[in-house]
Specification:
Order of helices and strands: HHHEHEHEEHEEEHHEHEHEEEHEEHE
Strand content: 25-35%
Structural class: alpha/beta
Radius of gyration: 25 Å
Number of helices: 12
Largest sheet: 6 strands, mixed
Length: 365
């Protein structure tokens, strides 16, 4: 037998054993978590972990492998700590922005119990999940008036995470300033570019100067810190309460219907849920550079009776004038029919990935 094949088969057998042992180990971790919670003990015990590493490393006979086993143990212990934290505190949910950002509000409405972990931008929030620092990320993918969020879409295409759900959050923009401010005092309004765009008619009517901030919550925080009555922010009412600002006027959006869709991004594909809503699936793919390839893909999806809710193209960063496609379809792709359709799509796609099948629309708390 070829050495490579034989080695891979050996690793496959060992990996099955490791998977079974991993589940047993995590069952023990669950009991430890319960004990620590009952007795008010901290999750992280540095002295205990160092002692275990020293003791277990001595079991490795091959000296060349010992430092790698130390890495293995530290990684295993980190996973155990993360699992204990989830059991005692709830899921760790990454979002972009500061407390009070719309993504933070969405995370609180999606999960009954969670620790919301702020990150400075979309990419760092995404990476926090990839690297195991957080259980999931809640990131915006589309606004009903401003359109898609391209940076998040690009990460969904190029990264390893799955979409385990999409949730619609109605967005209401409010004008806020430090207490005692009158609208006539305001000279400048700051907020996220999309918020400024969605309130442009109101801003134009009052003749306000505008400045862009990375998100609405940071803008509100800045206004609170500046203590300047000529400066106002556009943000949510939750943000006003959080930073001690006074809402001068509510609902200054140009349109009454303004909704942002937030995706929950996880390291594993979603399992079948039982809450309300019909099945919804997301596909991302590129097509071969030949006539009719995209039409063939669309026809095959229709052939299997999946109704496409949307089909969008986005430029690929690494290839000039090349595009990938984002598609949402009604129905479950995680079944025999969906798998057969995926096989039939493969000859026409250079890259093809199912990001998830989940219930949509899902209800927020």
């Amino acid at each position: 037998m070829d050495k490579l094949i034989q080695a891979r088969e050996t690793i496959g057998t060992i990996d099955k054993e490791i998977a079974a042992l991993f589940e047993k180990r995590m069952d023990a971790v669950r009991l430890i978590s319960e004990y620590k919670t009952e007795h008010g003990l901290p999750i992280y015990d540095a002295a205990r972990e160092d002692a275990l590493i020293e003791k277990n490393t001595a079991l490795i006979q091959d000296e060349e492998l010992r430092p790698y086993y130390v890495d293995f143990l530290r990684s295993t212990m980190r996973v155990s700590r993360n699992f204990q934290a989830k059991l005692s505190e709830g899921m760790r949910v990454a979002f972009s922005g500061v407390e009070g950002a719309f993504a933070s509000i969405a995370a609180g409405k999606i999960f009954n119990r969670c620790v919301r972990v702020p990150h400075p931008d979309f990419r760092s929030a995404y990476r926090a999940v990839v690297e195991g620092e957080c259980d999931c990320a809640v990131l915006p993918i589309e606004n009903s008036t401003a359109g898609e969020v391209g940076q998040v879409m690009d990460m969904m295409f190029s990264g390893p995470l799955f979409v385990s759900g999409i949730y619609d959050l109605p967005i209401i923009h409010n004008l806020m300033a430090i207490p005692g401010t009158k609208i006539s005092d305001i000279k400048e309004v700051i907020s996220h570019p999309q918020a400024l765009s969605q309130c442009s008619e109101y801003i134009r009517k009052h003749g306000f100067k505008t400045s862009e901030f990375e998100n609405t919550a940071r803008a509100a925080k800045f206004v609170s810190e500046q203590k300047n009555s000529s400066l106002a922010a556009i943000a949510s009412d939750e943000t006003a309460k959080l930073y001690g600002l006074e809402i001068l006027e509510k609902g200054i959006n140009e349109r009454n219907i303004n909704t942002t869709r937030f995706a929950v991004l996880t390291r594993t594909a979603p399992v079948h849920e039982t809450h309300k809503g019909g099945k919804h699936s997301i596909l991302m793919f590129t097509v071969r550079n030949e006539a009719g390839a995209l039409a063939q893909v669309v026809n095959i999806i229709g052939k299997y009776d999946y109704n496409m809710r949307c089909l969008r193209s986005r430029p690929m960063k690494e290839l000039l004038w090349q595009y990938y496609f984002y598609a949402e379809a009604e129905g479950d792709l995680d079944n025999e029919k969906g798998h057969q359709m995926m096989k039939e799509l493969e000859p026409f796609c250079d890259r093809l990935r199912m990001l998830g099948s989940f219930r949509y629309p899902a209800e927020l708390k």
